Amino acid sequence: MFHFSFTAMYPSKRTSTVIMLLIFAVTWINPLWPVEQALHSSLTLVGFALLWKYSKRSGLTDLDFLLIAVFLSVHSIAARWMYSNVPYDAWGQALFHFSIDQSFGWTRNNFDRLVHFLFGLCFTPGAISYLTSRRGLSVRLGFYIAVSAVMVTSLWYEWFEFAVAMILSSEDAESYNGQQGDMWDAHKDMLMATLGSLVWGWSAWRAPSGARLRQASAGQ
Known about the structure:
Elements: H1 13-26, H2 34-54, H3 62-80, H4 88-96, H5 100-104, H6 111-133, H7 139-166, H8 170-177, H9 185-198, H10 201-206
């Protein structure tokens, strides 16, 4: 990952993979909506495979890998409850006696917004690492391209959801897409992914102009 002002120990890629796969397996215990969960999980499985296959030659550090594993794990949890039914508010009340929905005045389940935000947040550092270490780009240019890539892939995902919805019944399409009556759902999802990606702007801008990634042998 590009330069941080602190150092820390992160789990190895193998450890992150084991934890990620365990979480994925747990989400399939007595599935509530197996067909819908399988549809949502299809891209997760592709992500698992691609992440492990290309991690060594893509310039990803252990932290880059961990962040992507976190996203895929959260996506697996969301898929179990079809996004719209993740009981995060009930969990908050049971554990902390605190209602997230009431505190923010939410009338819809917003776990899907979190997942889209995490997409931008968790994939951007890895994309920057690849662009700087394997393509020789500066950190700043790598950041610009990474944010653009997050925006484009978010759009592709919304197209994918639309294509799937076209072959389902109206009721099943609504359940799969999880719009919850929000006509601007796709736009807000893409915005959240972009905002997650832009979080890393502070670190990219701190990098000297033209700076390349410093390879840390411990993170490879």
